[in-house]
Amino acid sequence: MRRAAGKVILLGEHAVVYGAPAIAAGIDRGATAHATLVAPGETSRLCLPHETVVADARGADERGRALAALLLEGARLPPLSVEPLSELPLAAGLGSSAAVGVAIARAALAAAGRPEPDDEVMTRATAWERIFHGNPSGIDTAAATLGGCLRFTRKDGPTPLRLARGLVLCIGLSGTSASTRVMVEGLARLRALEPERVDRDIATIAALADDAARAIEAGEPAKLGALMDRNHEVLAGLMLSTGPLDELCAAARGAGALGAKLTGKGGGGAMVALCRSDAGAEPLLEAFRARGYDGFVTRVEAARSRLLDTP
Ligand code: MEV
To answer: How far is the CA of 54 from the centre of ligand 1 (A)?
Structure first.
């Protein structure tokens, strides 16, 4: 059995697709996968609760194409049967598909008796993600693989951040979902129509993300919260927010959050709020429940980054 983290993007989603930096953190909820070898000559397959999907690079089922892409990326793996399980709401912007892809990559390598280096896991999981999302930046698979808190750019990949203090995050669920592919393509269309405005907004988000990385490393949560608020405004101006996401963000701020924004692709799904303390999370969850929304609390510990723990 292998695990991978879900993720929350603290700043920089969408802009990261165009080369800007983004800040993401792995969260406790994630995905698991169990893989076993099947007889040579059999076809690899995904065993889901109600169906089995065979790996087929040219098949009609995108899950079968995604499994084929993951298995074919890099050195060949023997035929496998894989059972994935996600603890995350689907298509909510919390990295469910990347967490599943990372857990499958790890489980497949383990079943084949191979080492599980992070680079190979990320490459295989990004091949899986490409089938579902078209043009993923790779931030979701990096956060799912490495956990902790990281700065990510397409050019440089993930760089772990040294948190001066832990972060208490409250996730609010708007109850609707959206396709990453549709949201990313929607922004690309807007950019084709209004290139100057969209590029200016991307540059603004890039600067906010870099300021946020400094605030995280300096232990300045109030500053980080203000940057998250500003990032949400810019994303909303790019038509990526929804009424329920705006309502959740306003409710979080009203209940004492230091900052709040949509997280991930937007268009539905989740938002993230930065709490003042552990005790500061409960009023946010109450405010969400009072408006008919679910939520949960997750913490990013200062000493949690796997890369930093490596001697
Ligand atoms: C999705 O979690 C984040 C986006 O920026 C897409 C990506 O980076 O691949 C919207």
So the answer is: 27
